[in-house]
Amino acid sequence: MVSFNNEKFLDFLLNAKRRTYAAQDSSAVQSIALVPGSKQLEWIDGDWLYRDIYFGMSRFVGQETVYWCDDPVWSMGYSGGATAQAEISDVNPVYSFLKQALNKVQRDRPDRGPETFKAGGLRYQ
Fold this sequence. Notes:
alpha+beta; five-stranded antiparallel beta sheet
């Protein structure tokens, strides 16, 4: 049996994050949601499975979990959304920007995205 390897875990996690929600081309594997009312994205590579389950749109909450050989080895909860002051009638540009930020996830901070990111008058932190 192959032993768990932290470097392979980080490689998988970063790749999975970039290929699911943060994917600019919407190529994420959307699976049947395990939890009613949620959206679920998955990425599988060999013995590794990444699952992102989230709820909401302008305000959202979710959980990412990585499984190795069917055992959960990492998990993270997150939440966020547009501020009430934004008065956004169309959140699509905001979430396009969010995908840009999340696509910049780095090895030294594999949680969500960079500490800060700015583009087109928007700021992620």
